Amino acid sequence: xxxxxxxxxxxxxxxxxxxxxxxxxxxxxxxxxxxxxxxxxxxxxxxxxxxxxxxxxxxxxxxxxxxxxxxxxxxxxxxxxxxxxxxxxxxxxxxxxxxxxxxxxxxxxxxx
Length: 112
Hints:
This protein has 4 helices and 4 strands, in the order E-H-E-E-H-E-H-H. The protein is an alpha+beta fold. It has a 4-stranded mixed beta sheet with strand order 1-4-2-3. Strand 2 and strand 3 (55-58) form a beta hairpin. The chain is globular, with a radius of gyration of 15 Å.
């Protein structure tokens, strides 16, 4: 597989297009937690976008939180190297991989 270099670009929130078949849900509490994280730690996880319409591949919750926080632009990475099929698969895989990992409860306790 050909490797590509990620480059962050800042896009206006109104230039981003949510993926219409995004299977991940974000309720108000979830969006508020993301917003709090952005306010506390800054926006350290760019939104992945694809194509000329800047379709969101991953980062729908971050976009909602950014809008809720009054942000007008957000950091993004282009994922145009993906085919349409890869984009669809990555959208699902990106969300599912975080769900599949488990916490080391002892280390978590020490961190808290």
